[in-house]
Amino acid sequence: MKRIIFVFLACLALQKMYAQDSTLLNLLNDSMSAHKGKSYVTGTFKATHVVNMQTVETIADGALSFVIQHRFGQLNSGSYNFFGLDNATLRLGLDYGITDRLTVGIGRSSYLKTFDGFLKYKLLRQTEGPQMPVTVTVLGTVTDYTQKIPGSDFLDTKYRTAFTAQALIARKFNSNLSFQVTPTYLHYNLAPTSNDKNDVFALGMGGRMKITKRMSINAEYNYLPSNQVVSATVHDSWSLGWDIETGGHVFQLVFSNSQSMLETQYITGTTGTWGKGDIYFGFNISRNFNLKKKRSEAK
Amino acid sequence: MKKVLLAICLIIVVPIAGFSQLYMTRTGFVGFYSKTPLEDIRAENNQAYAVIDAGKKNIAFSVLMKGFVFRKELMQEHFNENYVESDKYPKATFTGSYTGELTPTKDGVYKVTVKGNISLHNVTRPVEAPATLEVKDGRILGQSEFKLKPEDFNISIPSLVRDKIEKEMKVNVKIDCSTSK
User: What DSSP letter does each residue of B24-54 carry, written as one string?
Assistant: First the structure.
């Protein structure tokens, strides 16, 4: 008899426990954290370039990004040249996302009339949990300059070609701050003199700090260890940028002591310094087009 | 005597116990849509968590913002980074109740009104929407459609893209809840 009443009361008590609103939500949230899957960090950088250095970001599957990179002349070239605005160096590029992680790109730069191509693959993706702390993208670039140099007919395509291999390693520390280090290997089929190295190693570093939801300040530094390029006086490349994002565009205002925008040229060929005012003002603009209508849901 | 008492107890308890069973899903659907001449936005999430307490007539939802898949990847990134700020506010939730008589033991379609509070982007607002609940083979299927204004949830839209996004988003919800967890 007592037992029956106990069971009866226990049943009633159990029902009371179920019924509340917040309990339902707690139940959902408990279940959610129990079934939590891996989720990846997105938007480490807004654009595919910090300033000159490529970021870990790849183009989405089926999307085409049209990139215009533009640098005026040196700031210290005087009022006659309107502080550099009379001159310009331009790179036009097209980047296409073969998959969400693999991007192929081509470009043409007015500096030494250079053609370039690259392949970029996102090898590892930073997760929100502790599983993977960084995003790692590998980048292979080839450049070929076609500028005619009088008296240098022996310079055929092979001699004019150079390669870059980079490991882009980035971490988004929080929604505002991201940092990237970029170990770089460069190979020149022809070095300017026999004292210069054909194989050059460098280390790039870059970061961004968001100042509003749609703007960020970027900085980039490319360290070139000495005794690799000796026939010319070259300096490390320093750049500052200001990203402004509006819908499908990213607009970057940049200042750099490098004129070229290609790895094989700005890492080993930056002759100017910030201190003397050899600063190139310019901008990068990218516009995204979606060529594929449907996206697969699988991530 | 004992048997009679037991029977009485069972008669009282069992229907309530049956009633109070929770119907749950982890694969609910929530989608929102905006259509303007400039831009067509579709975002769909197939990992919504929902639970219905058929006894108390309570209902709750919890949805991860990062689970919304957009047609354009860039839109998805902007949605998470700039609009709903998924890093800071990862979930949208709803708790509320529904009106209307629903017998979970009997198959049928019931028109109900769902009323409660929706929390999104750290803002909680009351909502009310007509919904359909269907009892079928011991499951409860739910469906609803309503509208939400981004500005109501403190989601600011820059004037440059304001014309590309409808003032009111159409929201679609579809769930198929069962008692097995």
Answer: EEEEEEEEEEEE-SS-EEEEEEEEEEEEEET
CATH class belonging to A63-290: mainly beta
Which ipTM score applies to this complex? 0.78
Assess if CATH 3.60.20.10 describes domain B23-177.
Answer: no
Contacts of B91 in chain A (CB under 8 A): 29, 32
Q: Report how far residue B167's alpha carbon sits from residue B35's, in angstroms, rounded to the nearest whole number.
A: 10
State how far residue B150 is from chain A, nearest Cα, in angstroms: 16
Q: Inter-chain contact A32–B62, Cβ cutoff 8 Å?
A: yes
Q: Would you say A139 and A264 are in contact if contact means Cβ atoms under 8 Å apart? A: no
Which two structure tokens, joined as six digits, stand for A136? 């790692």
Q: What is the mean pLDDT of residues B143-163?
A: 93
pLDDT for B17: 46
**Which pTM does this prediction carry?**
0.83
| Rounded distance between C-alpha atoms, residue B81 and residue B150, angstroms | 15
Residue ranges of the domains in chain A? 63-290
Q: Distance from B162 to chain A by nearest Cα, in Å?
A: 10
